[in-house]
Design brief:
The chain has helices spanning 2-9, 13-39, 44-124, 128-144, 149-169, 171-177. The two termini are 82 Å apart. The chain has a domain at 107-177. It is rod-shaped and about 135 Å long. The protein is mainly α. Keywords: Membrane, Transmembrane, Transmembrane helix. The chain crosses the membrane at residues 12-34, 54-76.
């Protein structure tokens, strides 16, 4: 599996090596031909013009080779940049998912903490203001957190069942409210 990925990753090297080998063979054969023709020239003017043509051909060949190498480097740079972009997009996606999970955990902790404090207010206090504050907090939790809705309803129903005898046994508490 790893060998296939390496072959796929460096597949572009094989055509480049073949093209480079063909270019080297062509340059060598061209050099041999130019050298044979140059030796056969008779006077200095022809030799000078031939050396000028050779120089032009060499400069043109070097320019062409530089263009080809620049294109290959540009292509490789594009490939690396594309891979880096994909990695950055994946990292951003993972970071967004992690942030979303962190927010959900924080919201869950906050709701749990609020729920615990509200239930504590209902159970431990005999002060009607504190009890009402707990009831209002539980109603807010039931509205904001669907997963706590039925749990809040059960707690409030239990609170009413447990506390109703306290208030009904003391008629003065009921008369004070009217």
């Amino acid at each position: 599996m790893r060998n296939r990925s390496l072959i796929k990753k460096y597949f572009w090297i094989f055509p480049l090596l073949i093209a480079s080998f063909a270019l080297v063979l062509w340059i060598i054969s061209w050099g041999v031909q130019v050298t044979n023709n140059y030796v056969n020239l008779q006077n200095g003017k022809e030799k000078f013009e031939a050396s000028l043509e050779i120089s032009k051909a060499i400069v043109g060949g070097v320019g062409t080779l530089a263009t080809i190498v620049g294109g290959v480097v540009l292509f490789l740079n594009f490939r690396v940049a594309n891979q880096n972009l994909k990695l950055a997009e994946r990292k951003a996606q993972l970071d967004a998912e992690k942030s979303k999970k962190d927010i959900e955990i924080a919201e869950s902790r906050l709701a749990t903490d609020r729920f615990s404090k509200a239930v504590e207010q209902l159970i431990t206090s005999n002060n009607i203001t504190v009890v009402l504050s707990g009831i209002y907090t539980l109603s807010t939790i039931a509205r904001d957190s669907p997963e706590y809705h039925w749990l809040v309803m059960k707690v409030l129903a239990s609170f009413i069942r447990i506390r109703l005898p306290d208030y009904s046994s003391n008629p003065e508490v009921l008369n004070d409210r009217k």
